[in-house]
Amino acid sequence: MGVYDFISRLLERFPDILIEGCSGGGGRFDMGMMYYTPQIWCSDDTDAIERIQIQYGTSFGYPISAVGSHVSAVPNHQTGRSVNISTRGVVAMAGTFGYELDLNLISEEEKEIVKEQIKTYKQNWKLINQGDYYRLSNPMKNREFAAWEFVSEDKEEALLSVVTLSTHGNAPVNYVRLKGLDENMVYFEKYSQKEYLGSALMYAGLPLSILMGEYQSVQMHFVRKL
Question: Of residues 20, 30, 44, 183, which has the active-site annotation?
Answer without folding.
Answer: 30
